[in-house]
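Weekly sync notes, structure subgroup
Attendees: PM, AL, DS (notes)

Item 1: joint prediction request from the bench team. They want all three components modeled as one assembly rather than separately. Inputs as received:
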Amino acid sequence: MSDELRHYLGLTVLGRMPRRAFLGRAAALGLTAAAANAMLASAVRAAGPVRGGTLKLGMQGGESTNSLDPALAASQVPYSILFSIGEPLVEVNPDGSLEMRVAEAVEPTPDARTWMFRIRKGITFHNGKPLTAEDVLATLQRHSDENAKSGALGIMRGIESMRVDGDMVAVTLTTPNADLPYLMADYHLMIQPDGGRDNPASGIMSGPYIMEVNEPGVRHVMRRNPDYWDSSRGHVDAVELTVINDPTARMAALQSGQVHIVNRVEPRTAGLLARTPGVTVANAGGRGHYVFIMHCNTAPFDNNDLRLALKYAIDRQEMVEKILAGYGTIGNDIPINAAYPLFDDSLPQRVYDPDKAAFHYKKSGHDGTPILLRTSEVAFPGAIDAAQLFQQSAARAGIPMEIKREPGDGYWSEVWNKQPFCASYWGGRPVQDQMYSTAYLSTADWNDTRFFNARFDELLLAARAELDQAKRKGMYAEMARILHDEGGLICPMFNDFIDAHGPAVQGFVADPSGEMMSGLAAVKCWLA
Amino acid sequence: MRMPLSAAIGLFMTALFFAAAILAPLIAPYGMAEIVGQVWEPMSRDHWLGTDNIGRDLLTRMIYGGRTTIFVATAATLLSFSLGSFLGFTAAVAGGWVDQVLSRFVDLMMSIPSLIFALVVLSVMPVTLPVLIAVMGLLDATRVFRLSRAVAVDITVMDYVEAARLRGEGRGWIIFREILPNALSPLVAEMGLRFIFMVLFISTLSFLGLGVQPPLADWGAIVKENREGIVYGIPAALVPAVAIAALAISVNLVADWILNRTASLKGGRGD
Amino acid sequence: MTAVHPVVRLLAQRIALGLVLLWAASVLIFVGTEILPGDVAQSILGQAATPQALANLRADMGLDRPPLERYLSWLGGAVRGDLGTALSNGQDIARAMGQRLSNTLFLAFWAAVVAVPLAILLGLVAVRYRGRWPDRLISGVTLATISIPEFLLGYIVIFFLAVEFRLFPSVATIHSGMSLADRLNVIVLPALVLVLTVLGHMMRMTRAAILNVMQSAYIETAELKGLPPFAVIARHAFPNAIAPVVNVVMINLAYLVVGVVVVEVVFVFPGMGQYLVDHVSKRDVPVVQACGLVFATVYIGLNLLADVIAILANPRLRHPK
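Output from the run, pasted for the record:
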């Protein structure tokens, strides 16, 4: 590296030279943009995080009805807040490995039925009380109590008993589960004093920031927690999170420098936004996917030929281009992609084929009445457009479809999981077992395709208890084939999470698990 | 009296919009929902206005969208004016308990934000064009009622109305022969505005996901479908907005002209 | 017997009626939220709802009680001034809503302070130069501003004044820690859009109403007396045209308070509209009820004011025969 370049690099790392200017100088010195970027990133990492400043986030996904009770959290803003003020036992790293947080170590018994979590010492809550194994137990109990109203109740079902053993918490399952630690990374399961039984919405937790101003749906201000145990997290003095639900307003706030980081950049405009000086668009392909779901037990979708006809009648490539503007990958009618451990890539990719669609449509003997597809703006971003694309591509195969746009309000309670054919989305789960058990097991609460397949269920339970990874992979491959050929799921695309940040933000690495570095943007980023 | 240039322009534009709406299937270059290109293609020989957010021809969408917008807005405006002004005049002329009942009922309707009203009604009823028109017309009739009643109350205390009463004219005669001609100018001026508000109201309903069903479009829905592009200079969202503004101005130029004419007819000093 | 002035009697009558109206509106809103599909428990848990969790949450919030009982207990509280707590997040409604209401009134006040006098002034000017270029210009511009959908107007303003030239902030999140100057700076853009949306309607009505009385004999008399044209319009024609003008002003003031959801969304302004819409979509009945009550009060109050002004302004109504 030339001295000149090194000099500029130093200036840029210290924030005395704009990033863009550095890239310009580097290009002048013959470096490709990619190489210069990589050099800058590593230099910044080497320089290390800087303390101080107020980090301003502008986020979609907050309402005035939001609560600080982790059990009730569902949207993006509470999600990010919980990861800033709270901490779960473990987290999932961007590469899919486990990160130990409140738990220092986790060990299974050989049969994977009981898991022992060793609780880290020296953590204190925001109210000064030390965090103990009893608090952890109480938290897990509150969320798994049948009388609880927690959104995590579903994933706590498989737990038979829990107890404290010294500084360990032991969790015993009804059936073995090799993936249990991943379940403990759920955002509802932030450790609270006495499990939050007395005052669940107090916001007193053990995370790197302390809630200072809490105006739901408007703004949240958090100060750094001076007693936080891990000095590698929580770099800024204060985090100011403003709820900006309107996409155009959010982008304008970033462009005009009123906020540092925004979430939910609309794919179609991401390319245009990236041209704004100083703005960096960060995207990560993840496990989230957009779907059209058919009830396998309801006419006319109880006919597998009709299901296949519709699967062949959708143009996945066009959807990725027009709905995601390339920020995503095509789906293959299973909820799993390469972002999952043990993914089997030998399953042939289904493509748009009007002839095959017409063939199966004819074979199904459907009477020719238009097939009603329900959609809504809230089903996923661009769901109404996607439905219209689907309608057009199906029409080319001779399959008449009718679109019904449902109000966003009430869509999840009245349409999804109730009507036989509608648009929806899944955020994905850290592991295949969890994704399949959430929505494709016969007995799942959210079996939103009404998929009942004995062989599939049997394989799922066997794979869950299987510690031999090769055997497990084989089982998952067979399950994927069953679902691909017989399921009610039409999965045209896996969406990227797209965030964007201004020039002052350092340390932002897009995370395939979720937006805003899976909620950790305020915790891991710093201002230069 | 010669028709002023502005009114002629207004009339011509209005006629053009209505003609395009009626003849939509004949003049639109492509099918309404047909996907013919890439996302947001610029204006070209094949696509005079470019393409929209999923690659449909924007000119075609505009023509069909105008059809929906103009039809719904016209029907709803007519409904709200006939109902609102008739009840308003009746309340003013009849007075007493008729006035009280009608006025308080309208107050009740208006005291609930129309957004919530529309939300409730349209989520329990199927969203079809007649339902849309009825809901919009009825909600708007309350505004027309208030205005026409206020105007008519002022007129009813005029000497000529008193004279008509003393002559023993019936209520209908008073409403249609005495009040209507004299209340016409503010009402006509208001009618032009209410028409625009109807157009905007359909857009707002589309904004809330309660408007017409896709792939059918109205201009408000086209603005909305393409609005992501606005701050990056994509014209697809601005074209329907310009169309809404052009229609609104044209209709109101005509309304202004009628306003002037009626003022002249009444023996005032027309210019 | 001391004769009660008819205006006073009318006023008393109207206030009593207003209270009845408020009650009727609260019933209507309650029934409305009951008719809407889904309930607060379902909306909170969303995709995460299991039947057990739903049942628990419902019991917790008292949603398992019959509707009439819930309405009566709400009414009992409301009459005593206790609006209760939000079902969705347990916040005290009076406090949370009070904050939102004061924000909304703040914005509405400044928008009205600019818009109402400006609209009337422009209306007078348009009449004075009727048919000439100032009239045409005013009419054309105001027509254009009301014809553009509000959110588009908002985006255009943001694009030019916030992003391109960075004159004013686009994010109008006002909060208690701000000085008056900060607050005013922050609401410039939303207030501008509101002024543009309501200006045209009020201006046009002023113009039409004045033109309507310009043919009267007394105007001719005033002109023959040799008064300057603007004085004739402002002093003689305008007072006689006040009833329809006041009505339109009232409708627009009410709109500034109850109808600004879109502007709130675009400018991220923490007002009543967004608060209400959030809670409607969560089916949080007590909050919706409380907001409905406030909106109805605002509307009925302004209405009353308009009627009284109309009566006071019209001598024939002021002294009934």
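Discussion: The interface with chain B takes residues 247-248, 251-252, 255, 266, 268-269, 272-273, 321-323, 325, 375-377, 384-385, 387-389, 391-392, 403-410 of chain A (CB under 8 Å).
Action: AL to compare against the crosslinking data before next sync.
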